[in-house]
């Protein structure tokens, strides 16, 4: 198949607000510094649904969504050195070129090399590798894992230990890694107090990372009472349902009271801007650090009294958990294989590609942590 167009099936998002539909797509061979991957499994992330809904400022249609995949390299373009045919790989929506000002800074994982074209739904040369019904189809987040074959830039893919089951470690392409990195990369978590708002895949990953880092007190906060058991399984030492507080009592005031001044670290894992404010205000005067992970709907803004920051709280955020994919993801896969990081436990639903639209519905049910699609 190398060098030839591959005809396969993909879930295409034709227009915002409509379910994805299965289509026959033609996938062109990889050009120089590109990799064609046979995708075997993919998770569905809330960000896929968010873009499909039409809320993403960068959303382009028609496109092939999906950015939490695992697969095998089918062929490589000229100049590709880091992966070879047959490698088990995870596509990276946060690329790592190791050359740009961000990669070299040692301060950020936000590689700039392919970010502009990625945001425009095309490969670095400005064109798409996908066609369906005679029409070009846009790429998404540099990954497009809802296709049986996809093409990505060589800076946007990493080979991982082939002993790791791809139907599980595909989830390291987004949610689990984001959450894990967001907490484990912070200095000072050992012995500290941590508050996690929202116990979906992201919140559970933060809880698990906080436990791994030996935080002393880990408080999970969720409006869904069924999340208590989940939170405790992933490392929470306490669970609070804010809807059960006395009328008019703010969750941040309650947390400040029970922690003698606030939490050392808090995390928004909901994408709700009001929760982001609560998380910031629940962090400790003088040194609290609050991390935004949730993606808010287009047009939403955060607010708080500036006094909250004047009095020593830090408001920060993270994309892909600050993880540099090519350098660090293979190590995370090994931590999973060594039993240090949960992955299997997040998979609550499994679907065949034929049922991928139902997989989007699964995600909106409170009992779904992650749905993995068998391509
Ligand atoms: P999810 O919907 O599975 O989980 C959200 C949880 O928050 C649910 O359990 C829900 O009950 C709870 N919740 C809702 N309102 C609440 C409130 N007012 N107070 C407390 N809890 C509340 O979502 P997820 O997959 O865990 O993703 C969470 C967010 O992270 C999404 O916005 C997603 O787009 C974003 N995300 C960001 C990145 C990144 O790189 N920054 C990566 C992946 C996902
Ligand atoms: N494209 C949107 C924002 C969407 C967004 O914030 N994406 C997160 C990843 S969510 C993964 O599930 C992210 O990493 N953003 C950083 C980046 O460079 O894309 C918009 O508002 O335009
Ligand atoms: Zn995601």
What does this structure look like?
This protein is an alpha/beta fold and 375 residues long. The chain is 25% helix and 23% strand. The protein is built from twelve helices and 17 strands. Strands 3, 4, 5, 8, 9, 16 and 17 form a seven-stranded mixed sheet that branches. Strands 12-11-10-13-14-15 form a six-stranded parallel sheet, with helices on both faces. The longest helix has 13 residues, at 325-337. Bound molecules: nicotinamide-adenine-dinucleotide, ligand AHE and zinc ion (ZN).
Describe this protein with a few key phrases.
Quinone Oxidoreductase, Chain A, domain 1; binds ligand AHE; binds nicotinamide-adenine-dinucleotide; globular; 2 domains; GroES-like_sf; 6-stranded parallel beta sheet; binds zinc ion; ADH_3; Rossmann fold; 25% helix; S-(hydroxymethyl)glutathione dehydrogenase (NAD+) activity; 7-stranded mixed beta sheet; alpha/beta; ADH_Zn_CS; 375 residues; 23% strand
Briefly summarize what is shown.
By secondary structure, the chain is of the alpha/beta class.
């Amino acid at each position: 198949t190398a060098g030839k167009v591959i005809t396969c099936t993909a879930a295409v998002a034709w227009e915002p607000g409509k379910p994805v539909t299965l289509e026959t797509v033609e996938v062109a061979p990889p050009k120089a510094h590109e990799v064609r991957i046979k995708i075997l499994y993919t998770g569905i992330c809330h960000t896929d649904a968010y873009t499909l809904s039409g809320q993403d400022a960068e959303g382009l249609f028609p496109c092939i969504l999906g950015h939490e995949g695992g697969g095998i390299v089918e062929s490589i373009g000229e100049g590709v050195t880091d992966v070879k045919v047959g490698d088990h790989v995870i596509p990276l929506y946060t690329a790592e070129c190791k050359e740009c000002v961000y990669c070299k800074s040692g301060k950020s994982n936000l590689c700039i090399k392919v970010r502009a074209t990625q945001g425009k739904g095309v490969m670095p040369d400005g064109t798409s590798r996908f066609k369906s019904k005679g029409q070009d189809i846009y790429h998404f987040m540099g990954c497009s894992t809802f296709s049986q074959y996809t093409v990505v830039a060589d800076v946007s893919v990493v080979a991982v230990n082939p002993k790791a089951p791809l139907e599980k470690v595909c989830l390291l392409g987004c949610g689990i890694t984001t959450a894990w990195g967001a907490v484990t990369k912070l200095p000072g978590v050992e012995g500290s107090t941590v508050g996690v708002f929202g116990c979906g895949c992201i919140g559970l990953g933060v809880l698990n990372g906080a436990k791994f880092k030996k935080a002393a007190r880990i408080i999970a906060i969720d409006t869904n009472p069924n999340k208590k058991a989940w939170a405790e399984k992933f490392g929470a030492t306490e669970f609070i349902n804010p809807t059960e507080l006395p009328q008019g009592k703010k969750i941040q005031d309650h947390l400040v009271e029970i922690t003698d001044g606030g939490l050392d670290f808090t995390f928004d894992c909901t994408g709700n801007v009001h929760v982001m404010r609560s998380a910031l205000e629940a962090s400790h005067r003088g040194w609290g650090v609050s991390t935004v992970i949730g993606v808010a709907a287009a047009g939403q803004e955060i607010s708080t009294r500036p006094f909250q920051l004047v009095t020593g709280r830090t408001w920060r955020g993270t994309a892909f958990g600050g993880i540099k994919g090519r350098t660090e993801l293979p190590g995370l896969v090994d931590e999973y294989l060594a039993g240090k990081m949960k992955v299997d436990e997040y998979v609550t639903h499994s679907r065949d590609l034929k049922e991928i639209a139902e997989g989007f519905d699964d995600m909106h049910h409170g009992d779904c942590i992650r749905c993995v699609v068998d391509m």
